[in-house]
Amino acid sequence: MAQNKSGQVTQITDMEADFAQWYTDVCTKAELIGYTSVKGMFILRPYGYAIWENIQRELDQRFKETGHSNVSMPMLIPESLLQKEKDHVEGFAPECAWVTMGGREELEERLCVRPTSETLFCEHWANVVHSWRDLPMLYNQWCSVLRWERTTRPFLRHREFLWQEGHTLHATAEEAIAETEQMLNIYADLCENVLAMPVVKGLKTDKEKFAGAERTYTIECMMHDRKALQNGTSHYFGDGFARAFGITFSDQNNRQSVPFETSWGLTTRTIGGLIMTHGDNSGLVLPPKVAPIQAMVIPVAQHKPGVLDAARTLLARLKKAGIRADMDDSDQSMGWKAAEYEMKGVPLRVEIGPRDMEQNQCVLVCRDSGEKHVASLDGVEAAAVEMLDQIHHNLFARAKKNLDDYTRVCRTLEEVKTFIETEGGFAKTMWCGDRDCEDKMKEEAGVSSRCMPLAQEQVGNTCVCCGKPARTMIYWGVAY
Amino acid sequence: MAQNKSGQVTQITDMEADFAQWYTDVCTKAELIGYTSVKGMFILRPYGYAIWENIQRELDQRFKETGHSNVSMPMLIPESLLQKEKDHVEGFAPECAWVTMGGREELEERLCVRPTSETLFCEHWANVVHSWRDLPMLYNQWCSVLRWERTTRPFLRHREFLWQEGHTLHATAEEAIAETEQMLNIYADLCENVLAMPVVKGLKTDKEKFAGAERTYTIECMMHDRKALQNGTSHYFGDGFARAFGITFSDQNNRQSVPFETSWGLTTRTIGGLIMTHGDNSGLVLPPKVAPIQAMVIPVAQHKPGVLDAARTLLARLKKAGIRADMDDSDQSMGWKAAEYEMKGVPLRVEIGPRDMEQNQCVLVCRDSGEKHVASLDGVEAAAVEMLDQIHHNLFARAKKNLDDYTRVCRTLEEVKTFIETEGGFAKTMWCGDRDCEDKMKEEAGVSSRCMPLAQEQVGNTCVCCGKPARTMIYWGVAY
Questions:
Q1: Please, what is the Cα angle at B359 between B356 and B363, to 5 degrees?
Q2: Looking at the DSSP assignment, which residues form a beta bridge with residue A396?
Q3: 8 Å CB contact of A99 and B97
Q4: What is the dihedral of CA B348, B354, B355, B360, to 10 degrees?
Q5: Quick one: DSSP state of residue A8?
Q6: Which one of A98, A109, B230, B318 has the minimum C-beta count within 10 Å?
Q7: pLDDT tens string B205-251
Q8: What are the phi and psi torsion angles at B250 (to 5°)?
Q9: How far apart are CA B46 and CA B297, in angstroms?
């Protein structure tokens, strides 16, 4: 069992002793996740779903500001439609769930529950795109998808997970590539400036890219245990899907042309990522910008005259200042409440009691550091806003330090192996670009390629694996 | 073909000639709906989905203000779980779609794609509810559900449709009934004050109520063609589900008790309802509060100096005033633009050209009446806001008149039959309460019971069908 910030024994496993069990404990004790009788499927309970709603709101606003519209596509895809693009079906068919009965009748053609919706968007566009005037198509969909995974873990790998999938169609390759990069930057912005998770932006290798894509861009994050989490990907398809689905348009010179396509997605695994980036032995630590409750007001000695009124007034003031605040005036003990909101990762605990009232003050307790700040009630709103901002920056700085400290230049496979075994993190090496070397790194050092960072550096001249001339810098790591 | 407000022949069927075809034409020409290769499933295109997003925002705010939290439940339900409540499974099993294969393997137990999620909520609550402190559970979920219907129509009947399903659990029957009524009132508020659709609130008969419910409350709307649309239902389950799923809690006296349950849902068929309530031969007419675009600015003679700048300034001012405004400065003709935004039901068209600029004015054209109002640019924001408000009230008044004019007291089955055949609408009668009479009304007059209005009147003493003493006033109609 771990000890919390107040020195009490918590009901969660110590993260240094067993990080995986600590993670599962947090997901359940913070009431983010519920189990169901359907293997590999999870319930997002109110507190977990509220985090997702906040991520949705932040992303949706950015999508709309960049001209995207939301749509709703069917959840079922006929097998023949899924088969139209060869690489795509090979990538997804093995993990599809299939509907074979509708009502009491066997279906003539089985339908898969969407694992992703490229094929549906393509079919639609083949119907409605005729002219350059119809382009670009900038669509997004919020939904859930199914992938019949063998092993599952809360948030990180579900058989059903929530996500958004953006799909766009453009007149030129340049425009489509610019879109792919724009959306990657939006994901990076979300991670760094909303979720306080530093990212490495890069390209996936051919082995790791999305089924059917010409290029897959990714953002990779380092968790507290130094493993890697892929946290949003953006794909450039060239005109492959458009050709497979017969999408054409007449351009401004009245010539029939084939358009270019992208897709990009971010899932609820991001919530798993923020748990594993910021959490500690007291439980969840939420970045303030997506915390369902940013400040929890707790009246001290609430039976004493005036305390509840003072707490209510304080709550109202915080809410009016735009802070997502709540109050716990239940009959639970102060110790219980402190542990509860630490477990739930509420960024600020705001305590007010008789002595505080006398001195026109309250106490703000920061979840991340445990620090207590006495704040005058005059201007308490500004103090709380500033402290939430500070917590965001502290969380980011801590995670950035972890990323920087455990990203290590390695020159040989042996060096990578030793680094991964003894410390763990991102091994930063040069690579020849050959699949054989990538496979060998996996077999011998247990690492997969994470990405070829967009910010390239010349950390050597030869491939870490075969010693031949290198083509690119690449990150390796152990991934979730 | 119908004629639009500008006297041009539109590409849609005349609504008086063929209302059903007019409806389908509007759904496709206004770009609300797309067809797919999966029979009975539809795409909600950006413009259609944006209406749903506005409905969602309005409802979600009301749900949260009344203490409800959103959650996410799995989309698949094991057959054994669905079978736990007898009435419920009988109602839904015949129209379930079944997943029988996961990846390459046949499943040991088939899973249905959720037609509704009572069983999943119950299973969850059986796990997490222990004490009176855990109650009430006030949950909602935004998702899609599948029902394997034989005949389908855009928005009105899809094999997959979007909805919200609220599920709540309470310590007492009184509290659960109050919840059921509260949510019905929220639906009525949405319909009347947001969608400009007058409603009749009432109870469903035993024949028409939801599978497993003790009571089903409904709001019924009358469409332009005087048919009825059920537009949101709220169910009180008593403790039936709780007993079937073994949900208990220890009350404040430490006694094991069984809680009481509700569920309530509103679907995208509401969009079908507003199309059929407000639309005309120029196309869609959108109630301003859910119109994706409330005001479309159209520059007149936009090649003339200063016109585009003036239009852009006007657009910026309208947006700043909180109006969802957009501008069409494409090279299409004025006639094309007028017809296009009439078809799309944009409440206000705002025209500004060289002569308007000289006179510091613009022209506001109301979609519902076709009236043109010259407005000074000084205070144009207030004029636009007021006109949007007026359009809402005009739409509501027109629909209310339709509802009032075609709700007719009938005293015999013959009278009902004649009224339905010659005029159509809601036949308002007394009823003995027997299922036999209800069935006979269907067979002989072709009507189904719509609801037993909460606002009861004594319009007679004997049953419209059998002549025996009446127990309740009831509405009959032909339903979508």
A1: 40
A2: none
A3: yes
A4: 70
A5: P
A6: A109
A7: 999 999 889 999 999 999 999 999 999 999 999 999 999 999 999 99
A8: -90, 125
A9: 20
Given a contact cutoff of 8 angstroms between Cβ atoms, the answer to whether B158 and B41 are in contact is yes
Strand partners, A97: B102
DSSP-derived secondary structure for A107-176: EEEEEEEPS--HHHHHHHHHHH--BGGG--EEEEEEEEEE---SS-BTTTB-SEEEEEEEEEEESSHHHH
Q: Is the pLDDT of residue B4 over 80?
A: no
The yes-or-no verdict on residue B7 having pLDDT over 70 is no
Burial of A50 (0-12, 13-18, 19+ CB in 10 A): buried
A212 and A84 Cβ atoms separated by less than 8 Å: no
pLDDT digits (tens, 9 = 90+) for B121-156: 999 999 999 999 999 999 999 999 999 998 999 999
How close does chain B come to A22, measured CA to CA in Å? 21
Q: Is the peptide bond before B136 cis (omega within 30 degrees of 0)?
A: yes
Residue found by looking up tokens 């007059």 in the block: B445
Q: Beta strands of B56-151 (E only): which ranges?
A: 69-70, 76-78, 97-102, 105-113, 137-146
The count of other CB atoms within 10 Å of the CB of residue B84 is 16
Write down the pLDDT at residue A191.
98
Q: Is beta strand B137-146 parallel, antiparallel or unpaired with respect to A228-238?
A: unpaired
Q: Which tokens in the block code for residue A207?
A: 């082995």
How far, in Å, CA of A103 to CA of B97, rounded? 6
CA distances from B260 to A180, A249, B221 (A): 50, 58, 29
Of A77, A97, A123, the CB nearest to B101: A97
Helices A307-320 and A380-405: angle between axes, nearest 10 degrees? 70
- Best mutation target among B36, B83, B123, B133 (most A Cβ atoms within 10 Å) is B36
Residue B446 is given by DSSP the state -
State both tokens at A359. Answer: 């001195």
Point out the least confidently predicted range of A182-186, B101-105, B168-172, B273-277.
Answer: B101-105
Report the phi/psi class of residue A212: left, alpha or beta, with left for phi > 0 and alpha for psi in -120 to 50.
Answer: left
Q: What is the dihedral of CA A465, A470, A474, A477, to 10 degrees?
A: 0
Q: Which of A49, A103, A146 sits opposite B96 (nearest CB)?
A: A103
Q: Give CA–CA dist B427/B418, Å, rounded.
A: 10
Kindly indicate whether the ipTM for this predicted assembly is greater than 0.90, answering yes or no: yes
Query: Out of A103, A124, A128, whose CB is closest to B148?
Result: A103
**Do residue A70 and residue B50 have CB atoms under 8 angstroms apart?**
yes
Give the global pTM.
0.96
What band does A7 get if pLDDT is binned at 50, 70 and 90?
Answer: low
Cα–Cα nearest to B275, from B14, B55, B44, B26:
B26
Show Cβ contacts of residue B449 under 8 Å, excluding neighbours closer than 6 positions: B204, B205, B207, B208, B431, B438, B441, B474, B475, B476
Q: Can you tell me the distance from the alpha carbon of A98 to that of A105, in angstroms, rounded to the nearest whole number?
A: 15
Computed over every residue of chain B, the mean pLDDT equals 96
pLDDT at A86: 83
Q: Residue A1 CB: number of other CB atoms within 10 A?
A: 13
* Nearest CA distance, A48 vs chain B (angstrom): 8
